[in-house]
From TrEMBL, chain A:
It comes from the Bacteria. This is DUF1416 domain-containing protein. It comes from Actinomycetospora lemnae.
UniProtKB/TrEMBL annotation, chain B:
The lineage of its organism: Bacteria, Bacillati, Actinomycetota, Actinomycetes, Pseudonocardiales. Pfam families: Rhodanese. It catalyses: thiosulfate + hydrogen cyanide = thiocyanate + sulfite + 2 H(+). The keyword Methyltransferase does not apply. This is Sulfurtransferase.
Length: 99, 285
């Protein structure tokens, strides 16, 4: 999971992947990207931590400390969620399918 | 104050888009969201460039607020309906700001942009032309705004409610998890503060929880309603959301928002800081 992803939203200048853990991913529906979805980062107790709106290409990004997280997406075409484990500094990718 | 005075539903909003003396105003964390589509007829306020003084770290002054509202075509007798993204957090901040300068007829659209979009309601890219007004503001109502000395003196005596996420509260993060972590300051929280993340007051669709649910939430976390309360976060916007829940929805009388919040407190020399999960249950994640 730590390997470079095939595609991500560009990271902000100054992001240090040797110190920070960055979680990036895409919201998809039947393989197509879903833009404008509300993407929520929930901690392992299910508590809300942050929310972003996915880009036109379905991308989202969080700065999450190591741990187990749930990424939950709400969209007009449905909702979905997935779990991701962030092991340490670096880039972590996942995908949320909504239906 | 009660829920009926402070909130409007998306259904009400949709039926009152053209109501007289009613102005819809969008305020977003993402200040470009408006351009991509907004509630028809709504004007935009930019919290960063229009509500903050461009030089000093403070709000625009009374004259600046008057000029701003006049230029947006908002009159003293207009009812302002505020809404925005991310569960209304910057709209709640603008709500508190309008109250600070004495605009009483202001309401939040429950659920904000998120519920509006998820409901599939209409968005528009046309920017309305409103004619200039002569808006007159009042002096700041500091009964709802806390400053740093008052906050330091409140340690152990008033309710201090830190509404940031548990990781920010404990000192592990310095900003919410969707923002870069670049701040040069100390992590942690004000000693004796309870950690009740602002988001606990909202449902998944961005609407506020019911009064009963809100009351239970703050009671469970140890808020003593016989004492005055000061809410804070990182820059004062998420704590506006909690200020709204406590002061406007639950009708608690002495509730202030500390807009200096952690960016100020965590940079002060010599003040006490506590790290770790603190006293309330929610920090123990």
């Amino acid at each position: 999971m730590c390997s470079a992803p095939e595609q991500t939203a560009e990271l902000p200048a100054g992001t240090d992947l040797t110190k920070e853990s960055v979680l990036v991913g895409k919201v998809t529906n039947g393989g197509s990207p879903v833009g404008g979805a509300f993407v929520r980062l929930l901690d392992r107790t299910g508590e809300f931590t942050a929310e972003v709106v996915s880009s036109a290409s379905g991308d989202y990004r969080f700065f999450a400390r190591p741990g187990t997280w749930t990424v939950r997406a709400l969209s007009r075409s449905g909702n979905g969620q997935t779990e991701v484990s962030v092991g340490g500094p670096g880039l972590f990718t996942n995908e949320v399918q909504v239906a | 104050m009660s829920r009926q005075d402070a909130l409007v539903s998306a259904d009400w909003a949709e039926q009152n888009l053209d109501a007289p003396n009613t102005v819809f105003v969008e305020v977003d964390e993402d200040t470009t969201a408006y351009e991509g589509g907004h509630i028809p007829g709504a004007v935009k306020l930019d919290w960063k460039t229009e509500l903050q003084d461009p030089v000093r770290r403070d709000f625009v002054d009374k004259a600046g607020f008057e000029e701003l509202l006049s230029s947006k075509g908002i009159s003293n007798d207009d009812t302002v309906i505020l809404y925005g993204g991310n569960n209304n957090w910057f709209a709640a901040y603008a709500y508190w700001y309008f109250k600070l300068y004495g605009h009483q007829a202001v309401k939040l659209l429950d659920g904000g942009r998120k519920k509006w979009e998820l409901d599939g309601r209409k968005l528009d890219t046309e920017v309305p032309q409103r004619s200039q007004t002569q808006y007159t503001a009042k002096e700041q109502d500091t009964s709802i705004r806390a400053f740093r000395d008052e906050v330091v003196n409140a340690i152990g005596t008033k309710n201090l409610v830190d509404v940031r996420s548990p990781d920010e509260f404990s000192g592990k993060l310095l900003a919410p998890a969707h923002l870069p972590q670049e701040q040069a300051q100390r992590g942690g929280h004000i000693p004796s503060a309870l950690n009740v993340p602002w988001s606990k007051a909202a449902n998944e669709d961005g609407t506020f929880k019911s009064d009963d649910e809100l009351r239970a939430l703050y009671e469970e976390q140890g808020l003593d309603s016989s004492r005055p309360t000061i809410a804070y976060c990182r820059i004062g916007e998420r704590s506006s959301h909690t200020w709204f829940a406590l002061h406007e929805l639950l009708g608690e009388t002495d509730v202030k928002n500390y807009d200096g919040s952690w960016t100020e407190y965590g940079s002060l020399i010599g003040v006490p800081i506590e790290t770790g999960p603190g006293q309330s249950g929610s920090g123990k994640s």
